[in-house]
Design brief:
The protein has 201 residues and is an alpha+beta fold. The protein has helices at residues 5-33, 36-48; strands at 55-64, 70-82, 87-95, 101-112, 117-124, 127-136, 139-145, 151-159, 162-170, 176-188.
Length: 201
């Protein structure tokens, strides 16, 4: 069907106006993405869903060693926000039966505004890396690369002051082998790490 000249002009004008509006909106969205106030507000909003993790936790845990033997520990976690709630810091300690520290790990949970994804950087036993982190209805799942086609997957369920987490080694065949389990109870609040800032004078 042929369009009449006036109809063609009206159609072209409508397309031009729509294109200009879209370009202006896209430019506004792009500018907003680089606005610190927008970015920090989005980060705080995304981290707020994990406020239930804040505080101190303690309970029994078990590692399954490569030879199949079990090593029992008392696991503790202390968790709190920093940067006005824009990131969350996590420190875990595993205590041996004699009270010595057998394991100590530190992680930062954040929100990447540009990638629109959670970031989880973990440090432990001389290693560090950015891990895949996915929230769930009652907790989260995070993974450590462990070789070709292999991951160590940790699945946590945190509900009603109880934190249950299991670690599984999943190979290329998809078979899961349990390597870790802990069941923690929330034992109190914590002002870590936001307190004791250095004053101006």
């Amino acid at each position: 069907m042929k369009l009449r000249p006036l109809a063609t002009l009206a159609f072209a004008t409508a397309l031009l106006l729509a294109g200009n509006a879209f370009a202006q909106q896209s430019a506004a969205d792009a500018a907003r993405r680089y606005d610190p106030a927008f970015r920090t507000a989005e980060q705080k909003s995304k981290l707020q869903r994990f406020a239930y993790m804040d505080g101190t936790w303690r309970g029994p845990g078990t590692y399954v060693l490569p030879d199949g033997s079990r090593h029992d520990i008392i696991q503790t976690e202390r968790i709190g926000p920093l940067l006005d709630g824009g990131i969350k810091l996590i420190e875990g300690r595993g205590y041996n039966p004699d009270g010595t520290t057998g394991f100590n790990a530190f992680a930062v949970l954040s929100w990447d505004v540009d990638a629109q994804a959670y970031g989880f950087r973990s440090h432990a036993m001389g290693f560090s890396g950015d891990m895949k982190f996915v929230p769930t209805d009652h907790g989260f799942v995070w993974e450590i690369p462990a070789g070709p086609g292999t991951v160590i997957r940790y699945t946590a369920v945190v509900k009603d002051g109880r934190w249950h987490e299991v670690g599984e080694r999943i190979g290329p065949d998809g078979k899961a082998v349990r390597t870790f389990e802990m069941t923690l109870k929330r034992i109190g609040d914590s002002t870590w790490p936001a307190t004791d800032a250095v004053p101006p004078r």
